[in-house]
């Protein structure tokens, strides 16, 4: 009897020690290097998008797959900085951010990893995804010229370069050089026309500014309505949201504006994206890839387009009626990776011409 008791006691102790040792090696919270994390049936999404409609899509994904989506919202640049700071210990599985320039920066900082997916390759055109498949476009927007219908003849503006003519002195409204959308616009001009011409264009814009740059794209539209200028450079989806705003003042402002898609006889209108990449730190790669593919499917793309007035990246999905009313347009023939590659030079030359 005593021998049996002693044997049982020793067996229980040995099993407990094995279990403790196994837990120590497999517990992600005890691993400061972020290694050894176990897939949980959940994914952690770092996102700079703050739309209720996006959350609806995430909920649908969970309903269809059983995979939970933990959403960590923040400002785009701060999320990228956070991922860099966290390194291999980051709990991030996915990053969604606006602008190909930011996605390229995340790639060069080795925060993303390659995703080999036939679904993503079929759903997203080559120019809207990274050449190494480290990031993929989700939605698309055009950077157009908005104008005052009462004071401007749209036939007088055919391209971005027209805004630098003397006719538009003190009439051009645009955001600051710190804005990533403007940096990417200039980066696209560098890619297509060279640095010298891009610098000349930037100088012309500075010379014709109606005021020092301030505010966002909506503020430029409001400044037109207030008579501070006649034309503004802005993204299409902002105007779409204003036309469908619950704020009657925003609706009234937007109705006073017309839309010009520049450079239809030349390089085409500048476009950009919001996009997604799988974090290099992800230990839930299978679940994360399923999520990426889900967001590029036709039904998800329709919801993106209808809710936020963005152009779908999936070519099988049509834009919303309001975007159709503005008409079809030719886009810049450019892989958006070049926006990130030319970002530093764009900032440099904008600073050189005094673009505040």
TrEMBL record:
<keyword id="KW-0406">Ion transport</keyword>
<keyword id="KW-0408">Iron</keyword>
<dbReference type="InterPro" id="IPR006059">
    <property type="entry name" value="SBP"/>
</dbReference>
<keyword id="KW-0410">Iron transport</keyword>
<keyword id="KW-0813">Transport</keyword>
<dbReference type="Pfam" id="PF13416">
    <property type="entry name" value="SBP_bac_8"/>
</dbReference>
<feature type="signal peptide">
    <location>
        <begin position="1"/>
        <end position="19"/>
    </location>
</feature>
<keyword id="KW-0732">Signal</keyword>
<comment type="similarity">
    <text>Belongs to the bacterial solute-binding protein 1 family.</text>
</comment>
<dbReference type="InterPro" id="IPR026045">
    <property type="entry name" value="Ferric-bd"/>
</dbReference>
<protein>
    <submittedName>
        <fullName>Fe(3+) ABC transporter substrate-binding protein</fullName>
    </submittedName>
</protein>
């Amino acid at each position: 009897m005593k021998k049996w008791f002693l044997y049982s006691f020793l067996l229980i102790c040995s099993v407990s020690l094995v279990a403790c040792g196994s837990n120590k090696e497999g517990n992600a919270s005890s691993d400061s290097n972020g290694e050894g994390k176990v897939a949980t049936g959940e994914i952690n999404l770092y996102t700079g998008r703050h739309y209720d409609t996006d959350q609806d899509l995430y909920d649908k994904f969970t309903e269809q797959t059983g995979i939970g989506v933990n959403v960590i919202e923040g400002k785009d640049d701060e999320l990228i900085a956070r991922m860099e700071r966290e390194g291999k210990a980051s709990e991030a599985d996915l990053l969604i951010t606006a602008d190909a320039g930011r996605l390229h920066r995340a790639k060069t900082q080795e925060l993303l990893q390659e995703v080999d997916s036939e679904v993503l390759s079929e759903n997203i055109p080559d120019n809207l995804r990274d050449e190494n498949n480290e990031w993929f476009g989700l939605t698309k927007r055009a950077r157009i010229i908005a104008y005052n219908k009462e004071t401007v003849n749209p036939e007088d503006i055919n391209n971005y370069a027209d805004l630098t003519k003397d006719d538009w002195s003190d009439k051009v409204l645009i955001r600051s050089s710190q804005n990533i959308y403007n940096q990417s616009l200039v980066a696209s001009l560098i890619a297509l026309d060279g640095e010298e011409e891009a610098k000349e264009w930037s100088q012309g814009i500075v010379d014709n500014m109606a005021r020092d740059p301030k505010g966002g794209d909506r503020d430029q539209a409001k400044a037109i309505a207030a008579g501070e200028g006649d034309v503004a450079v802005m993204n299409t989806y902002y105007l779409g949201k204003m036309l469908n705003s619950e704020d009657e003042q925003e609706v009234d402002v937007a109705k006073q504006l017309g839309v010009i898609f520049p450079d239809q006889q030349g390089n085409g209108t500048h476009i950009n994206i919001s996009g997604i990449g799988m974090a290099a730190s992800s230990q839930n790669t299978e679940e994360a890839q399923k999520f990426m593919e889900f967001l590029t499917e036709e039904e998800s793309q329709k919801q993106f387009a209808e809710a936020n007035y963005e152009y779908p990246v999936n070519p099988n999905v049509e834009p919303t009626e309001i975007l159709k009313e503005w008409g079809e347009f030719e886009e810049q023939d450019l892989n958006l990776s070049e926006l990130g590659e030319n970002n530093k030079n764009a900032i440099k030359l904008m600073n050189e011409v005094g673009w505040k």
